[in-house]
Design brief:
With about 425 residues, this protein is an alpha+beta fold. It has a domain of about 190 residues. The protein has 9 helices and 13 strands. Strands 1, 2, 3, 4, 5, 6, 7, 8, 9, 10, 11, 12 and 13 form a 13-stranded mixed sheet that branches. Helix 1 packs antiparallel against helix 2. The longest helix has about 60 residues. It is globular. It starts with a helix and ends in an 11-residue tail after the last strand.
């Protein structure tokens, strides 16, 4: 009996020691987890409040444009909208990792910024047309509703908690964003100011990811760190359109697809150093090598927009001298260092696949207006308004002082689309 009691005492002592050790371990674990959660929560709070501030400023400038008659004032306001939109996109990209409803807002603000940039250059030269003022008023109304949705989301968590937790639970105030600014609700002019076919197709399957295996968040983090260097922290997931993991590292953020572990989007919010600008060929080489390092091979720059401190480029997959416009990747590069500040490959991920051999007929018989000065002829594949693709010949040229791109069906020679380049400084340059 004494031996049995002694063994029970030993077992009880061991159990108490193990329990104490487990409590200490769990305490350390939960302390680390709580610290990590607090850091992520603070990151989302900062992104949310900054996004709200900038949306309010954009709304204010768009309202002022409704009464502005001076071309100089119009230009200043539009440039302010462009700058505010560019900053807001970075904050929304962070928030989108936690709530799918924010993805349409991110795309809308990005396009709004591009449109404001184009109109700002046009306003400085000739002012705004009544049609353009009407479009800005429509966009202003959407920004107002969008801003109200984000403000309401903040009110929902004002009693406690943080935005990170609230977004994960599904803030009801954001539920209507997708319906509010879906792709069919906002129409932009058919102008080449963001590159030809920059929107690609919508409502597609992720063809590039077909057959690829799923990766864990841990594996995706390893991919981010191997591609960009440094340590990246997990910041959430997005299931809007393309399922991705979101990671952040200081001013940098990256989205990695859950299927295939592909880099879908990258942003570096570091400010340009402001040094001597690099030559265009250096910038092209830097962007091309960057894409190659991420696995995007056979990419050709088809569009370049040069601004004061940054250069925007669109790359399209090109093989056998055929440009595949649906397979598009956008890259942002610093003019002074040629360092890549951002990339977005959603169109490529949606569309890139083996299409087989395309059929191109004779190049004679294309009907162009008298006086059209032909510059180039390119074989290409273009997206249509019906979410399909069409092989075409692209003919660029000058007519009556303007630059045009005319597309003819590759098999029948039928004219199927016309695009016009808006020139403002270095904007509107096409590389073929």
């Amino acid at each position: 009996m004494k031996k049995e009691l002694k063994m029970r005492a030993i077992h009880l002592t061991v159990a108490l020691i193990l329990t104490a050790a487990l409590a200490v371990s769990l305490g350390v674990f939960w302390e680390r987890q709580n610290g990590y959660a607090a850091e992520i929560g603070a990151l989302y709070d900062a992104a949310y409040y900054s996004a709200v501030d900038n949306l309010g400023d954009i709304e204010n400038k768009l309202k002022k444009l409704e009464v502005a008659s001076s071309t100089e004032v119009q230009r200043e306001l539009l440039e302010g909208v462009y700058t505010g939109a560019e900053v807001t996109v970075g904050h929304l990209a962070t928030l989108s990792g936690k709530n799918d409803e924010i993805e349409p807002a991110l795309k809308f603000v990005n396009q709004l910024g591009d449109y404001a940039y184009y109109l700002g250059r046009k306003a400085a030269a000739e002012g705004l047309s009544d049609e353009e003022k009407g479009k800005l008023k429509e966009l202003s109304a959407i920004v107002s509703e969008l801003n109200e949705a984000f403000l309401s989301a903040g009110e929902e968590v004002a009693s406690g908690g943080n935005i990170y937790d609230a977004l994960g639970d599904g803030v009801t105030a954001l539920n209507g964003i997708h319906d509010l600014i879906g792709a069919n609700n906002v129409e932009y002019p058919e102008l080449i100011y963001d590159g030809p076919f920059s929107d690609g197709l919508s409502d597609r399957e992720t063809k590039f990811l077909d057959g690829k295996e799923a990766v864990s968040a841990e594996k995706a983090a390893e991919i981010a760190e191997s591609k960009f260097g440094g340590e990246f922290e997990y910041a959430g997931e997005s299931t809007f359109g393309i399922d991705t993991y979101l990671f952040v590292s200081g001013d940098r953020s990256v989205q990695i697809t859950r299927t295939g572990g592909i880099v879908a989007q990258y942003t570096d919010a570091s400010l340009p150093a402001g040094g001597e600008t690099k030559k265009t060929d250096e910038i092209l080489a830097s962007a091309t090598e960057f894409l190659r390092s991420l696995g995007y091979d056979s990419m050709k720059a088809v569009w370049i927009s040069e601004q004061s401190d940054t250069v925007y480029l669109n790359f399209a997959y090109t093989t056998d001298d055929v440009v595949y416009y649906p397979d598009l990747v956008k890259v942002k590069v610093a003019r002074d260092t040629a360092a890549v500040l951002g990339m977005e490959a959603m169109n490529y991920i949606y569309n890139h696949t083996d299409r087989g051999e395309l059929v191109f007929g004779e190049t004679d018989g294309f009907v162009l207006p008298e006086g059209f000065e032909r510059k180039s002829l390119v074989k290409c594949l273009i997206p249509t308004d019906w979410n399909t693709e069409r092989a075409a010949y692209e003919i660029s040229g000058e007519y009556d002082g303007g630059t045009y791109y005319v597309y003819f069906d590759a098999a029948t020679g039928e004219e199927i689309k016309i695009m016009r380049v808006i020139k403002d400084g270095n904007e509107g340059n096409l590389i073929v």
